[in-house]
Amino acid sequence: MKEKIFLYYTSDLHSHFENWPQIVGYFNKKKAKHLKNNETFWVMDNGDHADRFHPVTEGLMGKGNVELLNRAGYHFANLGNNEGITLPYNDLFQLYDEAEFDVVCANLKSMTGPQPKWLKPYRIKETNRGTRVAVVGLTAPFETFYRLLGWEIHSPYETLDRYYEELKQQVDIIVMLSHLGIHDDEEIARSYPAVDVIIGGHTHHLFQNGEYYGNAVLTAAGKHGTHFGEIHLEWDQDKKVLTKKEAYAISTENMKKDEDVMLDLENMTARASSFLKEPVTNLKEKMNVAWFKETLLMKALTKEVQNWTSADVGMLNAGVLLDHLESGAITYEDIHRICPHPMNPCKVEVKGDELLEIIRVGHTRKLTEIQLKGLGFRGEVIGKMVFTGVDIRTKRDPDGEERVREVTFKGKPVDMDKTYTLATADTFTFGRLFPEIAYAEKKTYYMPEMLRDLLASAIRKLDAS
Q1: How many Å apart are CA 426 and CA 434, to the nearest integer?
Q2: How far apart are CA 85 and CA 151, in angstroms?
Q3: The CATH number of domain 278-464, selected from 2.60.40.1120, 3.30.2420.10, 3.40.30.10, 3.90.780.10
Q4: Are 424 and 382 in contact (CB under 8 A)?
Q5: What CATH code would you report for 2-272?
Q6: pLDDT tens, residue by residue, 327-355
Q7: How does pLDDT run across 78-107, given as a tens digit for each residue?
Q8: Could you give the dihedral angle defined by the CA atoms of residues 28, 34, 36 and 38, in that order, rounded to the nearest 10 degrees?
Q9: Mean pLDDT across the chain, nearest whole number?
Q10: Cβ contact 258:21 at 8 Å
Q11: Domain locations in the chain?
Q12: Distance between CA atoms of residues 151 and 109, nearest Å
C-alpha cells in the first residue's frame, strides 16, 4: 500500500507581506482538500520570515511574524539569520513563546542559563498511517554575530553527525529545513544519504521543479514570497521506501489574495505602528537626504558612527538614508522609515595604504551607482561614500569622474605603514565591494545596536546644536 504525504513551505519571506495573503489563501485551499481526503500534510517555514526592515517586524520585534504563522496553521519553522542575529538576546529568547508550531534548529544554543522552551533540534511526527517523519532544522553559522548576542552556533555538519544515526534508527523519512545555502545543501545530500528532502534557503535560490542529488530532492522557493514550495511524497508501506519525491516552486504572481489575511495584516500594521511612536526629538527645520551628495544629516550619522566606535575614520554610504525628515516631532517610526536596514556598526583595522585605496574606490562612480541587494542593505543604490576624520581633496576630471588627489589625517598625509581604525557598516565586511575591509584581520562588531539607533542619537545632537 502506498501513502501520499504533502509538504508546503515558505522561505526567506523577509517580511514581504505583499505576497502573504496569496500564499495563505493557497495553503488554506490545499489543507481543506487534504483533510477531506484524510491525507497527511505539513506546512513549514525555513527561516528569514521576519526582517526588521518592515514596520510590523520592527514594532512587534518579530512576534507579529509568529502570529501570522500561527494564524496560517504552520506546523514547523526553522530560524534564519534575520531571526537569529538581528534581534537582541531577550527578544529572540522569547520570540516563539506563543508559537503554535514546532521550532526546529539543531545547531543553535544559548550560551548561558536555560535554553528557550521552544527550541528543539528536530521533531518526529507520524502520518495518518503511522509513517514516521523527522523534520530537522539547521541555520547558517554566523559565529561571530551569534556569540556577541549570547548564542552558540555550531557547525551544521558536526551537528548533523550528532543526530544522524539516531534519526536513521527512529524514522522512515528525514526532511531537512536548511537555512544554509545551496552549496551546503548539495554537500549534505552527497554526504548524508538518509536525508530524503532538503528544503533550502538563505541564498535565495529557486528550483522550479526540484533538483536531485544522491538520494535527496533539493527544493527552494527564492525570496520575498514571489514563490512558495510544494512537495509530493509517496511512501510504500510494504517495501518501506519512498517511491516518489516531487518538488515544485509555485509563483504567487497571479494568485488571488485572501481578504481575511489582508485584514489581519492591516490590523497588525496599525498595532505595530503604535509601538514605534516613541518620540526622538523635535526638528526646528527639515533635514534633506541625497544619495549622491553629502548632506548635513549623512555627515552627522557618519561622525556618530566614528565617535561611537572610537575610530580614527568614519565611512558610510549615503544610500542608507532613504527619505527626508520634515520639521516638527520626530518619532522612532520616522527613523525606521528612513533607515530600515538591519545593519550594525563595526570597526576594522587597516593600513594606511589600504585606507587610501578604500577612499579612492569610495569616490568612483562605478561603486556609488551599484544597486546593492542583500548583505543587510534594504535600499536602492550605495550612493556617495561619506568620510569623517580625514580631509580629502578631490578633482573632477573631464570624463566626469571624481579623483582623489590628497588625503590627510590630523593635518598630515596618511602614513602608508601605520594602522588606522575605520568605522563603517557591517555590510562592507561581506562581499567584495571593499576587499581591504572584507579581509581585514581585526574586525569589531557592535550588537545589537543598528545604524538607526545611532541615527537617532545623531539627530538629537544636531537639533540641540
Answers
A1: 12
A2: 9
A3: 3.90.780.10
A4: no
A5: 3.60.21.10
A6: 999 999 999 999 999 999 999 999 999 99
A7: 999 999 999 999 999 999 999 999 999 999
A8: -150
A9: 95
A10: yes
A11: 2-272, 278-464
A12: 6
